Amino acid sequence: MKTNFLLLSSLAVALLANAWLGAAVAAPNPVLDITGKKLQTDVEYYILPVFRGRGGGLTLASTGNKTCPLDVVQDRLEVNNGLPLTFSPVNLTKGVVRESTDLNIKFSAATICVQSTVWKLDYDESLRQYFVTSGGVEGNPGRETISNWFKIEKYEDDYKLVFCPTVCDYCRVICRYIGIYNQKGVGRLAPSDVPFKVMFKGA
Predict the structure, then answer these.
(1) How far is it, in rounded angstroms, from Cα 118 to Cα 62?
(2) What are the φ/ψ torsions at residue 165 (nearest 5 degrees)?
(3) Distance in angstroms between the alpha carbons of the first and the last residue of the chain
(4) Domain 30-202 has CATH 3.30.70.141
(5) Fewer CB within 10 Å, N side or C side of the chain?
(6) Contact between 86 and 203 (Cβ < 8 Å)
(7) pLDDT tens digits in sequence order for the chain, 203 residues long
(8) CB crowding 123-141: b at 16 or more within 10 Å, else e
(9) Which residues pair with 188 in a beta bridge?
(10) Count of CA atoms in the C-beta half-sphere (13 A) of 16
(11) What is the pTM for the complete model shown?
């Protein structure tokens, strides 16, 4: 009986060890910048298009007939990096930004609007289309902030932005890539079937 108990105990320890190792292996990979360094939560970056010739980095601009809040758009000039941003994951892990992890994205810039520069998904009634705009809330994960959380996912050798928040267990969310919606020559970020392929450069 003692032998059986020892065997069962050893098996239990082995299973726990394997479960722990499996959890460790399953940790999301870090997002890397164009130099191969891990993205950090306290560092500013530019989000740049991988494919050149269609515009520059991401910035803020007023679109349509409204002035505020400002919308997230692609700079028309390819040579412009846009505005620097910071990333704030829902779970900080040694200050590293990881793939497929809920995070807030925030421009490090002052604007004419009173709203924050945190990204959020908002609905444009006139165009009947969702767009990425500013005025979101940083942190406080849950139902009230569900539209403020985005993810960075690996896309071939580079990355794509995704709206698929998991900060609310009982909320129903339609997951979509973030792509470019052309509105009268302005490339606005919006949910799309075609992802905007991006890379990250230190500011």
Answers:
(1) 15
(2) -65, 145
(3) 66
(4) no
(5) N
(6) no
(7) 444 433 334 434 343 344 444 445 577 899 999 999 999 998 999 999 998 878 999 999 998 788 899 999 999 999 999 999 999 999 876 799 999 999 999 999 889 898 899 999 999 998 999 999 999 999 999 999 999 999 999 999 999 999 999 999 888 888 999 999 999 889 999 999 999 999 999 99
(8) ebeeeeebbbbbbbeeeeb
(9) 73, 181
(10) 6
(11) 0.85
Residue 113 identity (one-letter amino acid):
C
